Amino acid sequence: MRNYQSSTRRLGETDLFRAMQMIRQGKIYDLEVTRFPFMPGATGHPPFQVLTYRTPNGERVDGTPDWIEGPNVENVGFISELVMGSLHSGTHIDALAHFTTGVDSEWFGNTRVTEYLSDFGPQKHDATDIGPIITKGILIDVPAAGNMSTLPEGFGITLEHCKRALDQQGTSIEKNDVVLFRTGYMTSWPKPNASLGAGITKEVAQWLVEEKGVVAIGADNPGLEQNPSADPHRPRVVHPYLLREVGVHILELLYLEELSRDKVYEFSLFVSPIKIRGGTGSLIRPLAII
Known about the structure:
It is built from 8 helices and 17 strands. The chain is α/β, with parallel strands linked by helices and 290 residues long. It has 2 domains: 7-34 and 87-289, Glucose Oxidase, domain 1; 49-84, no CATH class. The protein has a 9-stranded mixed beta sheet with strand order 1-17-15-9-11-13-14-4-16. Strands 2-3 form a two-stranded antiparallel sheet. It is globular and about 70 Å long. The chain starts with 12 loop residues before the first helix and ends with a strand.
């Protein structure tokens, strides 16, 4: 019987040591975008919002707060906030419960909505199932390989595009690597970009998983895959394949412009997902270190 396990659980000491040995300069590239109210994102998710919840003035108006006992001669106060939005807001990683297929709406491991989706989120393969990622990262800069600043809207990244970029970059993919695709979406962030919808084809995803053995695949845009789909009968083909069929995580809305500018194509990648029970994804702050 198949062992249905998150791809991140394959990572071990060998991958960690391999990643650490790549660090020579001590230079850190922050791959996270800043989150802010009503930030751009994929359709279908609630807007991201930050609301001030408690303020010093509000407490004075309301009266002495219950956390203060006795005199408050220095007028000590505090500010706190309420954050609302999807775990797919900004730079994030998809949990395996994020995508379903079939009339029974099953996700990874043939897990049925009717059995494992509660009012408080999925009870199997949620965000708590995503392990930390410390391994080698690979950037595939498709626009640069084609002498473009950004890919056209709806551009499909084929296997030929991938191999050409890797050859020009002089990089190779090894087992348990994480592969990140640059489409140029972040060149005008957070304004709309013409490369929206550019992404990888299923052929590329299958090659990376089945031949190269990657542990995760990511991109600088909100969707990773080509949109609209090349298959007129299937609105998404890469997400169901990676998340539903083979259990390989997807990272989205990564800031890859600095890596591209410095022509850094191989690096040590650190990703630490947040453990939120019932979450179909996790906010992350990925770091590429060379």
